Amino acid sequence: MAKQKAFYFDASACTGCKACQVACQDKNDLPPEILWRRVFQYGGGSWLKQGETLVPNNLFTYSLSTACQHCESPVCRDVCPTAAITKRADGIVLIDAEKCIGCRYCQWACPYGAPQFDEETKVMTKCNFCYDLLDQGLNPACVDACVMRCLDFGDLDELRQKYGDLAAIEPLPTDKITLPALVITPHKHAQLSGHGTGQIQNLPEEV
Amino acid sequence: MIEKNFLTKTLTDTILSRRSFLKWSAALGGTAALAGGLNFGLKTVEAAAQTAGTEGTWVPVACWHNCGGRCLNVALVKDGVVIRQKTDDTHPDSPDYPQQRGCARGRSQRRQVFGADRIKYPMKRKNWVPGGGQKQLRGIDEWVRISWDEALDIVASEIKRTLDEHGNKAILTGRFTPSQFLNALGGAVMSWGVTSDGAWPLPVFVMGGGLPASFFLPANDRMDMRNSKLLVLWGANPAWSSGGNPAYNLLQNKKAGGTKVIIVDPFYSPTSQVLADEWIPCRPGTDTALLLAIAYYMLENNLHDQAFLDTYTVGFDRDHMPEGADPKENFKDYVLGTYDSIPKTPEWASKICGTSPDVIRNFAQEWATTKPAMLISGAAPARTSRGQQYCQAFLTVGWMTGNIGIPGGGVFERYHNVSSYGGPSLVQPGGSGVNFLPNPLFPTAGAFGGYAFSGAFDTDYYGMAYEEIWDAILNGEFTASVRGKVPCDIRMMYSIFEDSGSNDLNQIADINKGIEAHRKLEFVVSGDIVLSSRSKYADIVLPLTTPWEKAAGGLLTGNPEMLLCYSQVTPPLYEAKDALWVERELCTRLDLDPDEIYPLSLEQQTFNQLAGATVMKSDGSGYEPLLTITADDISAMGIEGKSQKGRISLQEFKEKGVYQVPRSPGDKFTFVAGKAFREDPIANPLPTASGKLEIHCQTLSAIINAFGFMELPPIAKYLPPAEGIEGTFEDFKTGVKGEYPLQLVTIHYLRRSHSVFNNVPQLRRAFPQEFMMNPIDAEARGLKHGDYVLIRSRHGKVVRPVALMDRVTPGVVFLGEGAWVEKDEALNIDFAGATNTLNGSYPTGQGEEPWNTCNVQVEKWTGKIPDLDYKWPQRIPIEEA
């Protein structure tokens, strides 16, 4: 059985520069409306009066880059009415544009926002792990683009052995629903999914 | 997926038949064949047809911007079309020898080059006639397509008419040295001053005996930084301001060296989030007060290095003053309040800078006692009114620690593409061979024009500070340092520059005044790749090429450890021409011999740079030629030159697109700035007046005072800047806030390199030009995250969506500099959020621009909500194909 392909993300090194997001848009000829990879800025804290000044109190912020998790239990595939979404032996989850009728059900179901509707072609699209590059022994575009070197990929089991099995921090949802093929090294201030005290600091239209 | 805002051919026809390729090239208005046989990887028509069905060829292309980086950018060319890009993969990546990876801007480069908004044809403003026509329509008029002949005839005749009727002093070339042909005709008005470095150049030079970071590297190098136990980054955010590796280098250095990192900034920035062990908030324009309090703490606790100060500096205390100085004007007594009765305690400073006294004390303890320490300032705190006081304070309080000329130690300004780098260049291009004709109106200006001009005592220059340009046009006079006000009568603005950018109307303070000034002139000509602000408000716009269209290819520098080599990947789009061709054509129309004025072709210039490129020898003892160039290479290029031997072949250099010197810890290129001076200050004096580090610097005072914009004491003192924290109060003492109660920082923003890239839709989506505000300030105004807000200053108004975040200091707000002004004339509001709509012109110090001292007020916008930035239509002035 082929191993499950997975992304690795080091949140402790990410500055949210979006080279990954834009490199992906370049590689896949995506218009600005479609983000196969999205970068969030999550943070919070407050400022308290101390004497005559305000001082930061539990201030925290970090960036998170996410695409499609090529989940072990992909809910997008489960809800698709035309079986347009399949999962390969190596774990990569793909949308077949020929079969997709653009009902957007997968977009509703995916907790990660991975499926993106294409207004021109009227079908769903999403990160395909740059499977064409992988087939040539090359890396996904986002991995090679990352300026802080915090994106990598590989076999899920090997990544877990190397980096642990954390797969969910805010603002991602819990990993218990779809079992994302994802390994994260947390930022020192990372908050566990569902236990966040911060907010997404991006403007809504940005992500 | 069809993307409407991109030249459609380049996306949908990834496999072109020979027939359609020829059709496309014809539509581009030229032949697809290359000039001069200089083959930098671009195929001819025949060869392109043969590759149909293959994967294409990777060709290194220029990423040429003033972004604080410059990285390797590579394009996949298939049948003459760039179908995608990649970045550096020429060697395995490691912290010691990192790939030169590009940022989001560089990764969008092909969308800039092939954008549907490229200027295709020469254009004339519909209502322009010689003399100006309806000048009030500049910026809002219609555009008419004209031929190159007509355009060049108009430009030449306007130059002739202006020279005849008003003289050379009536032609202004903005922030740059005039073109050669204008110098040959007697010169033109150019301006001077400092932009990126702020107040730094003179203090570094005359206090510290070094040179500003944008020119040279008076700093320890990247490997030596790993020896630091403490790194302080003061007002530096390389993650946004220095594209490419700097933030990565700093993180790797921190890990390798176990270095503690403290960052001082009003913004808990993306750099801070990955790098900072501690973050010290400090209000813009008040860093001087914070530094003085650190000095006070050190004096109070006897933590300063007295022996170092005695031996290596002058002016610290009354016993070590430079010759002729008033002993009372020593730094120590000022800090202690001996004469002004104001001890510069942390409590005193806290009222000004907003940092809590406890935090100041803890910080001061670290600053003084953790050694060796690298104390690095960015340029942002010096881009403030009275910025020199900050530079004086930073250098002085840094020198108090004695961290000079030792491994892992230093006190530097370091930013832009030398963030995280230092030492001499390890590999560099040769000169182009061009001999610059001096500008008769400004004989002392060098190749950098008026940048960091320090000739305050000169009486033979004619030109104003950058920030005085609009006032000079409108009021007919400018400040000429010791001569006082000098009259002027500007009639024409000439902005034809190689390589995009130079968007003066957008990037100089007070855009509203700039628009008014533009509407007073008789003639405005701009050469551009897209309708940026300076072209939007012009009369004639000429389509120029980008370096991707340059047959000669070329070289680019970035950081000192590598050299880039780029090639052409497309013939000039539509009717675009390069600036050299334009100026040669103007020569012909102005009775000048173009070969005399511009004797060197672009191909010859590129060859000269290649042939003269040198790389440091592996033992660090000097330089040797980089490239082996054969007789075959030379005859293929069609230029004059001799063959030579070097480290790598020209072919290899062109194919890879980069030569980078491998580094390792402790290698022969590790550099400690000031080492010789530290070892023996008598035998190796600094090039300062005293030969030592000048804490009391009469030279600095004299020059700044002579410029005439302000009076500067010879030691660091805190004096309130214009539109600083004090400017937010009706009355600083009683604490009653005034009409503009917030402080604006005009931060570098990743959508753009200054104003370049502002038009790329993918970047507009990624970086929405949000106005950043603390929830406390937002709540007080009833604002919610995502609301549109009206931001007002004493000088203009903008509307933007607001993003709430606790990581900005309360009372301080942030907006990215460089958005292209999009002015609603009726409302007098700029909806793009160009920060220079909010900044007023306050020429200061050495002619720098105090962008980071600006007061604003914010309220909810109740008018029509604009479209999201990435949905704005592209500026396509002429629709026809």
Describe the structure.
The complex is a heterodimer of chains A (about 210) and B (about 900). Chain A is α+β, with helices and mostly antiparallel strands. Chain A has a single domain, classed as Alpha-Beta Plaits. Chain A has six helices and ten strands; from the N terminus they run βαββαββαββααβαββ. Chain A has helices at about 20-25, 75-80, 105-110, 130-135, 140-145, 155-165; strands spanning about 5-10, 40-50, 55-65, 85, 95, 115, 125, 150-155, 180-185, 200. In chain A, the strands form four sheets. A three-stranded mixed β-sheet of chain A has the order 8-1-9. In chain A, a hairpin with a 2-residue loop joins strand 2 and strand 3 (about 55-65). With about 900 residues, chain B is α/β, with parallel strands linked by helices. Chain B is about 25% helix and about 15% strand. Chain B has a six-stranded mixed β-sheet. A six-stranded mixed β-sheet of chain B has the order 32-34-33-38-31-35. A five-stranded parallel β-sheet of chain B has the order 10-9-8-12-13, with helices on one face. In chain B, strand 2 and strand 3 form a beta hairpin. Mean pLDDT of chain B is about 90; it is low at about 10-55 and about 210-215.
